[in-house]
Amino acid sequence: MGFELERILYDTEDFLLRTMRSGPVRQAQKRRAQRKWQEAIRRIRRAAWLLAGLLIALVAASIVTDIGFFTWLVALPTAFFIAFLSLFWPTREAAEPVKAVETAPLGEMAIRAADGLLDRCDELPGRAIGSADSIIGRLHELAPHLGGLDPNDPTAGDARRLICQHLPKLVDTYLDLPLSLRSPGSESTRRFTESLAIVAEEFDSLLERCCRDRQLGFETQHRFIETRYSDGDLGRG
After folding, report:
1. Distance of alpha carbon 94 from alpha carbon 115, whole angstroms
2. Contact 159/149 with Cβ under 8 angstroms?
3. In terms of domains, do 91 and 118 share one?
4. Domain assignment of residue 209, given as a range
């Protein structure tokens, strides 16, 4: 009886944690849906151009040579079928090969890591969702700042290891465990939740390091404004 009650409480907590997702995660889901919609539009546009090209070629061939009714009867459905099949081919933008970790831009890797973690959130324990949401949000915040880092900067090396190695390896090794070892309240689940929380804190630290120069610039401007315009200095030359 006690075990069943504990299981019900865990399931209820898990449901609530998954339902009450943070704002950054909802924004990430929206961006991913938008990218999928844009890819669908590109495929439809390409299929339309392909069909138009095939029909123009067929008409041109019928003008130059004598194409019989049977040829038209076969060629028309074939053209529509080819255009339909092209809807399932990724466009050049979507099919761009994944670059090696050593050469891919860090900002691009951050977005990929955020999308990858977002895709696997349903497999993670409910108590780890908060840390996962925090990491996803930080990855999207980091992306534009990571692009401006010098590749030889130690911060860039730390970011690449955290984003491309440590985070995915932690998630992969946990999800490779048997389901019985990933049950709510299990020791493995507890340790994974703790480890993901540590990773989330490291991403907070990484964001602070990446934005240190900007923060210093802001503090300098803040002190200047305070000094220049405080104590009735407003309006002085």
Report:
1. 14
2. yes
3. no
4. 106-237
